[in-house]
TrEMBL record:
Superkingdom classification of source: Bacteria
Pathways involved: Purine metabolism; IMP biosynthesis via de novo pathway; N(1)-(5-phospho-D-ribosyl)glycinamide from 5-phospho-alpha-D-ribose 1-diphosphate: step 2/2
Keywords: ATP-binding, Ligase, Nucleotide-binding, Purine biosynthesis
Sequence similarity: Belongs to the GARS family.
Organism, scientific name: Corynebacterium amycolatum
GO BP: 'de novo' IMP biosynthetic process; purine nucleobase biosynthetic process
Entry protein name: Phosphoribosylamine--glycine ligase
HAMAP family registered for this protein in UniProt: GARS
């Protein structure tokens, strides 16, 4: 199989590495990719949200399968254009990608499917100050204020401070976007990734992300600073509950609406006293959870994604997993997520170190050919072990060997789980 992966982060690097171990993946291509992928795939330039450009590239390569990593091309209709041109695509069409792209659409689908989620109220940009204040006062004492557009987790403020909630709502509205206010969902967060091809839903192992920039969940939200899998603190049967209570009903509802989901349905949940409630859906693999989850998956990943892309998931058979745990830590550039500095030289992370657990996210080559930072999240370091502690130790040992001036990472990824501090 000749496979084209669209995207450029550590998630796409993890997908490429996982597929490179599948004997049926004979030829890997990536667009636009990053500097760390040069040993594993042929790199091509691409503007990721340009459907015509993606089709032209897939034709040039003669791709048997196109795997779309990020949400931006999915929302922009890149999967539609590729499918129309006859390619097998892993990733939903634009109408199905609304499950991530429009929080209002996601709420509507959940309501129709009877899926538990936070109650929500939208405020439109034309609302008066009085209306905004009144809406704010219908929520609290924990406010959840969201930008109803794509903001990669960064458009959300969760706060106990009414003034901060109001300020964020006004800022989003001033930018011309609707605001979504939500009731606060209590309980530890779970990310469950499900392969979906219409109505067949195949779950991967549950993972937990760490979204705040600092230790102890302090500081602003980011795209994700680290993750681990599986989650030993979840009750037995948790994955099956999420599949039957959340993912299958949503997949059925979307199919019934004429926008069947094909690709990766990511359920972001809070596990409360009564079980799972949905915080959000994403229409693609999560980053950085994927890097941990795929490190444990032993089934042939290219064949698995191809089965989802061609509607044959039901025949794929059970997935096989390595016992134990995987953990990933994100090495971020100076200033991330507030004012990221890029262009700094990276030492100790040359391409080709996937087996050591080093994946690239925001990296590039400078004019002198040196490896440099080119984004907020620069590298991902993965550790795998029989215990979560061992996985942690391995990842942190490796990350210490990498040099990037001004960089930072959380030192407490999975620590609450290791110390038994997560309870439901
Ligand atoms: P989102 O972009 O919707 O995933 O939100 C980013 C983060 O904000 C989530 O991962 C949660 O940590 C938090 N969050 C969002 N919505 C809620 C909610 N209704 N209750 C509690 N926390 C939330
Ligand atoms: N890890 C959060 C996300 O991928 O949206």
């Amino acid at each position: 199989m000749r496979i084209l992966v669209i995207g450029s982060g550590a998630r796409e690097h993890a997908l490429l590495y996982a597929m490179s171990k599948d004997p049926q993946a004979t030829d890997l291509h990536v667009a636009p990719g990053n500097a760390g992928m040069s040993e594993i795939a042929t790199m091509h330039p691409l503007v990721v949200d340009d459907p015509a450009g993606a089709v032209a590239l897939a034709k040039e390569i003669g791709a048997d399968l196109v795997v779309i990593g990020p949400e931006v091309p999915l929302v922009a209709g890149v999967a539609d254009a590729l499918r129309d041109a006859g390619f097998a695509v892993f990733g939903p069409n634009a109408d199905a990608a609304r499950i991530e792209g429009s929080k209002a659409f996601a709420k509507d689908v959940m309501k129709a499917a009877g899926v538990k989620t936070a109650s929500a109220e939208a405020i439109q940009p034309e609302a008066s100050d009085e209306d905004i204040e009144a809406a704010i006062d219908r929520f609290g004492p924990n406010w959840v204020v969201k930008d109803d557009g794509l903001a990669a987790g960064k458009g959300v403020v969760v706060t106990k401070d009414r003034a901060e909630a109001l300020e964020h709502a006004k800022a989003v509205l001033a930018a011309g976007n609707p605001v979504l206010l939500e009731s606060f969902l209590d309980g530890p967060e779970v990310s469950l990734f499900c392969l979906v091809d219409g109505e067949t839903v195949v779950p991967l192992l549950p993972a937990q992300d760490h979204k705040r920039v600092g230790n102890n969940d302090e500081g602003p939200n980011t795209g994700g600073m680290g993750a681990y899998s599986p989650l030993s603190w979840l009750p037995e049967g948790a994955t099956e509950r999420i599949v039957t209570e959340v993912c299958e009903p949503v997949a059925r509802e979307m199919a019934a609406r004429g926008c069947p989901f094909q690709g990766l349905l990511y359920a972001g949940l809070a596990w409360g006293e009564d079980g799972p409630a949905v915080i959000e859906f994403n229409c693609r693999f999560g980053d950085p959870e994927t890097q941990a989850v795929l490190a444990l998956l032993e089934s042939p990943v290219a064949q698995l994604l191809n089965a989802a892309a061609t509607g044959t998931l039901a025949d794929f058979g059970p997935l096989s997993w390595r016992d134990g745990y995987a953990l990933t830590v994100v090495l971020a550039a100076e200033g991330y997520p507030v004012s990221t500095r890029t262009g700094d030289v990276i030492e100790g992370a040359e391409p080709g170190r996937e087996a050591d657990g080093i994946l690239h996210a925001g990296t590039a080559r400078n004019a002198a050919g040196e490896l440099v930072s080119a984004g907020g999240r620069v590298l991902n370091v993965i550790g795998v072990g029989d215990t979560l502690e061992e996985a942690r130790d391995k990842a942190y040992e490796t990350i210490k060997t990498i040099k990037l001036e001004g960089s930072h990472y959380r030192t407490d990824i999975a620590l609450p789980a290791v110390e038994g501090r997560i309870s439901i």
